[in-house]
Amino acid sequence: MEVEPDCVISSDSFEKYGLNERCRVSRERVQDFLERGLMSQDGVYQRYTEELSEKLTSVRRSDQPGVIEDIRQSFQRLRDPNTGYLSEVMFNRLITERLSGLEVDESLNGPALLFNICSSHAFYPFPKSYGGSGQLQIDEDGFVRAVCLLTLSPAPRYGPRFSGARHRYYSGNWGPHSGSYIALRGKDAGDFRRRLFRSLAVPDSTSTGHDTTIPVPRFMWYESNEGRDSEDETGQQVVVAEDESELSIDIVDVLSECPIEADRLTANPFRESYRIALPSLPKHTDDISVLFIPTVKLVALVKLAQQVQRESRTDLVATIEGLGNDGKVGWEAFESAMSEHSEFIADFVSSIFGTFTIT
Which domain of life is it from (predicted)? Predict the structure, then answer.
């Protein structure tokens, strides 16, 4: 189910009618998971690795049923024998070899850019983890998650463009309204751009920033022209939404997408129920509004994509270079410049990381 462009956003809070029986049971189940110690970061990573592995295997089932094992073999070749974690040196060496075959300009420092992207996605949806020596600790499962995320499309794709977010839902009643509860938040190209931005960005010590939030639908229903609820989904769509912090929205997404105990009879807990687990899990500390990508770094990424994809985007390069004279591209400027080029960048990233699925 999609949020329609001409929908009406209700001014009512989702809590207006309190918790009905289904919502109450949903939260109780998540609370039970917490009390049983099943909501740890390690547990989330394990379930997410399995979920992404199943998705990529499903996509490649006809031509490459052993794709996950191939990714794991790629990791073993790039593994530091002393630490057991992904070796940045070996990763960069392999990427350099593969880019050289594409006649890519070495001055763009492609391996470093791609390692930044890989490492951020390996720890998604949590912050990066560093060892005592300050080295990133990307293990085999983290590498699998990164390759899966960067190889799979960031959103369903029909034709040349990514589609809008398609939410999973359950039918039910919210107060007097009959409609649909949102069980899983649908993803769109904007989620891919946020991940990409955080992969390459660093904190700006001179910026004060603000708390960035993203509206997330909780319940939808349709009203007829006379203002009466309609069961045939004709008329005006009304959406009850709540703002969620950008710092934690992805964590709630992953928790809801990877249920601990899949219940086929009574359905899994609603997405919003998992928010009670957030205090026990790590999250990013820098709001996206205080981050920036050095202009030269973003230009290098676009030029690298142009050379790999054999597709010119000189207008995009010019746009990025003209965003400001401070040499920094913040989130809002990045979003404005890149919003029409999501598919181009996603195809480039997918083509590079897809090489790790081949042994």
Answer: Eukaryota
